[in-house]
Amino acid sequence: GNPAAGLTYVVTTGDVLDSAHVQGVVIDAFTDSPEPEVLVILHVDTDITGFSAGRPAYFTRTDKSGGFMLRNLREGGYRLHALQDQNANYRNDLPNERVAFQESPITTTDSSMHVMRMFLPSASTQHVKEAAVLPDRVWRILLTRSADSLALASIDRSGGSLSWAQDRNPTKDTILFWPSDTTLLNGQRFTLSDSSGVIDTLVYRPTRKMPFLLDVRYVGRSPDGLPIVRTSRPIAQTRVERAMLVVDSTEMSIELRSYEGRQQFDITNAPSDGSSCTLVLFPGAFEDIYGGKNDTLRILLGAEQVAQSGDLRVELVADSEATPSGPYFLQLVTAQGGALRTMPIPALPFRALLPGIPAGAYTLKLVVDADGDGRWTTGSYAAQRQPERVFRQQGEVNVRAGWEVVVDWSVGDR
């Protein structure tokens, strides 16, 4: 009546028990975290279609640490794959199944630890992964691939005028559609199309009430050092006479410049040396495209104060010739998993200087930017292309207020 964890029961049809083995570990290609309970599959090296259409010669599952051991194998060559099997048929035949693979066949005489990096392959066809109407009435649509041209067309609406303003993320696979008019939109159907035709039919359905007041926040500084504020909805009209800037107790009018669309604005007459100042907004200084206005707001602008921030210097070197060559980009990652700072790195060795980091604990991530697009690119099993390599520095980096923290990182293969 007791579970026999790890029990292996081996049956042979002859007088010899096969004794070869293959071992390794499966990790997430982007986070380096272990992948427990995923299938690890072996096909004989002559079976080039078995992973997608056949049956495995051997299989096992990874343990809690992502490790695996395939025992009692026949001597010979094999193709090694890992699979997050969504339909329990031991083959890769669904677009949402994550995979990992070794590019070349392996042999049972190779006793090395095989590191498998699991990823979700890029989609071969365009479709909608998610569509949601956010409280501010923007329609956020996530696609499986980047898109250069998209259009929404109404199925139910007759008469009136409706247009959609678009905002895209850098990878062009998440699009924000802002309707020019939200009247009677709830429950209406629309077709989403690209240059190849209709992708999907979607229903516009808000789930929460839109906030009455327009929100305005300080989000950082522009490349020329000017403070940037961002509004929660696109702006139709600004009234600078209903706002002022307070610098060293001196009140002055403000000058605005649109920055990356109708939601971000530079304050062009604010100090550009990082010194703090305060933006005061009286009701109606900003009016959005739906007629919403801000309430009275006092927004502190400026860089983090020395008492709250520190500087970080990262000395990057390659630990061996096996370390992939650049270009790279370095990211300082917060405890919540977001990237606080991103810096391009042309080659190693390199000294990265990151000033004005808010005090706290972070991790460092270095991505091999093989295609030079400034973002992590997943792999493709069809093209036998591995995802871009990601290196994580072991342990945390603790930035202390008023200190310069130096990290020596020898970037090496796992």
Question: How would you describe this protein?
Answer:
With 414 residues, the protein is mainly beta. It has one helix and 33 strands. A hairpin with a 5-residue loop joins strand 27 and strand 28. The two termini are 41 Å apart. The model has no long low-confidence stretch (mean pLDDT 89).
Number of strands: 33
Low-confidence stretches: none
Average predicted local confidence, pLDDT = 89
Discrete helix count: 1
- Taking all Cα atoms into account, the compactness measure Rg is 27 Å
Into which percent range does the helicity of residues fall? under 10%
Mass-distribution shape: globular
Largest sheet composition: 5 strands, antiparallel
Structural class: mainly beta
Oligomer: single chain
For the termini, the CA-CA separation is 41 Å
Q: DSSP strand (E) fraction? A: 35-45%
Structural descriptors:
414 residues; mainly beta; five-stranded antiparallel β-sheet; 33 strands; 1% helix; 44% strand
Gist of the model:
The chain has one helix at 50-53; strands at 20-28, 39-44, 58-61, 67-73, 77-83, 99-101, 106-107, 114-118, 128-133, 139-143, 151-154, 164-168, 174-179, 188-194, 197-204, 216-221, 227-231, 235-238, 243-247, 250-252, 256-258, 264-267, 277-281, 286-288, 297-301, 309-318, 328-333, 339-345, 350-358, 360-368, 390-392, 397-399, 404-411. It is an all-beta fold. The model has no long low-confidence stretch (mean pLDDT 89).
